[in-house]
Amino acid sequence: MSEIRDVIIIGSGPAGYTAAIYLGRAGLKPLVVAGALTPGGQLVNTTEVENFPGFPDGIMGPDLMENMQRQAERFNAEIVFDDVESTQLDETVKTVTCSGGDVYQARAVIIATGSYYRHLDVPGEEEYSGKGVSFCATCDGFFFRGKPIVVVGGGDSAMEEAGFLSRFGSSVTLLHRRDQFRASQIMVDRTLENPAIDVMMNTVVERINGDGKGVTSVSIRNVVSGEAGELPANGVFIAAGQVPQTAFLGGALELDDHGYIVVEGASTRTNVPGVFAAGDCADPVYQQAISAAGTGCRAALDAQAYLESLEAEAAEA
């Protein structure tokens, strides 16, 4: 704790590593608290990534994150594989306390902790993740061209994903556990008017079935009648929402109603001077690896400008 660093980056997905690359190249030697169990964010649990620019033949998610980590380390970023337990951000010198007991201090902090997909927690979901179970239609819809698809959810994202997937699947069935959708009316109308989408209300997934190699069907149940059945499916897209990983902040930053960090306009500045937010934890809309990387770049540049302003103030004092 004796060393006061320039920047600490909390999180290690595309946003965190991109911020580290930019700050490292600026000579600021950032510290990246990457996480103890899931360094690299959601991409370490995905298979082939085909829509990240620069990889015309695609790249495996874990490989992409490993490349980003190595690139950050090349520019002297220090990476610590631990979780942040608490923060003190309202002082000029910020303090970050990790689960392992280490305490770090810096003049600026970038929060890039991402979000995680809300799961169904049913048998087969984890087993077939990446083998038919997906949480991103934009990422994986192409793989299910001409195959039966099931979408689970009732919000705008579920409607949007069902519409997108209707371009690919031989059939698309949207399952919602309630008798009313949470989505906006315009999205509901658009879904109901799409002849390629079948809608089943009051229906939950009980199990995701497969042959060991991929998904073959889903077991479903009507919550009103109790009637059970099975739907053929090779792709199961779960659109039950995402949860930003911001609880550890303990109210230190302004959050929106869904827990996402609020930033100032197109910048990454939060309501606390010297604290910046990048990636999915501050993005309730796009939630893509490439957009997260872009905000990681912005956060690095915003943090660099903030540090330069501190130096200017000190010189004038």
Mean pLDDT: 94
What's the structural domain tally?
Answer: 2
**What's the total count of β strands?**
19
Structural class comes to: alpha/beta
Oligomer: single chain
Looking at CATH, which topology of the largest domain would you report?
Answer: FAD/NAD(P)-binding domain
The CATH superfamily name of the largest domain is: FAD/NAD(P)-binding domain
- Overall outline: elongated
Low-confidence stretches: none
Content of β-strand: 25-35%
Task: Please give the largest β-sheet.
Answer: 7 strands, mixed
Annotated CATH architecture of the largest domain: 3-Layer(bba) Sandwich
Number of helical elements: 6
* N-end to C-end Cα span: 26 Å
- Order of helices and strands, N to C? EHEEEHEEEEEEHEHEHEEEEEEEH
Q: How big is the Rg?
A: 22 Å
Top-tier CATH class of the largest domain: Alpha Beta
Helix proportion range? 10-25%
